[in-house]
Design goal:
Layout (H helix, E strand, L loop, with lengths): L2 H15 L15 H29 L15 H32 L17 H34 L11 E7 L7 E7 L2 E4 L6 H14 L1
Antiparallel strand pairs: 1-2, 2-3
């Protein structure tokens, strides 16, 4: 290798190190041809990998496509392993959010039996498990609140008892009559000591269940 060839190689490597993956060595003959082919092939693999990473980033960030994944190169085991590791990490990051969204959607539709942590489902650990338990606890309390509201409403309708108290930790549900007649009875919820008339802090399912029970009573 001549001094000029060495300078050319050093210049190309410096360009690659600075992030210019378009750099190539141009020896097409002589004893350095095989070195040029291998180095250029390595650089081409990394260029394709980074281009694919940019594609995935655009899909996720700009297009809102969290299902976008890297394509593992078939001719580069190291880059393929890196792609699989990144894809697996993205799946692990997104799975808890998808399960939480599923539960929130179910609650919005009136199903208070949905949970993030289910028998036979994914096993979450660390911060993911903490978030799942928070959501499951919240939905469990809403379900208990809905059941208690149904009980208090039925108690009022069948026995004519005002001031019925629901047994929900941290939440009291009391029914009072604003005008002294059943048709004008207002539902007053006390959450952490604050009154909320008409169920301002309660899920849609609680309202619908209360309305169904009241309609049946009338």
């Amino acid at each position: 290798m001549s001094s000029a060839d060495l300078d050319r190689l050093i210049h190309t490597v410096r360009r690659l190190r600075s992030g210019d993956l378009s750099a190539r060595v141009t020896w097409r003959s002589g004893p350095l041809r095989e070195l040029a082919a291998e180095l250029n092939g390595l650089v081409a693999d990394h260029e394709r990998f980074h281009r694919d990473a940019a594609r995935v980033s655009t899909k996720i960030v700009r297009d809102g496509r969290p299902d976008a994944r890297l394509t593992p190169p078939v001719d580069s085991p190291l880059l393929a392993a890196t792609a699989h590791a990144i894809n697996d990490s993205m799946d692990a990051l997104l799975a808890p959010g998808a399960d939480i969204a599923r539960v929130i959607g179910a609650v919005a539709a009136g199903d208070l039996s949905a949970r993030v942590i289910t028998p036979g489902g994914p096993v979450y650990k660390g911060a993911f498990r903490e978030r799942a338990l928070i959501v499951d606890s919240m939905v469990g309390e809403l379900s208990q609140l809905a059941d208690e509201l149904t009980r208090v409403t039925r108690q009022f309708g069948t026995e004519g008892r005002l001031g019925g108290q629901a047994q929900v930790p941290g939440v009291s549900i009391t029914k009072t009559s604003t005008l002294g007649i059943a048709s004008d009875t207002a539902l007053v919820y006390h959450v952490d000591g604050e009154p909320h008339v008409g169920g301002q802090c309660v899920s849609a399912r609680i309202h619908s269940r209360a309305l169904r029970v009241i309609s049946a009573i009338r």
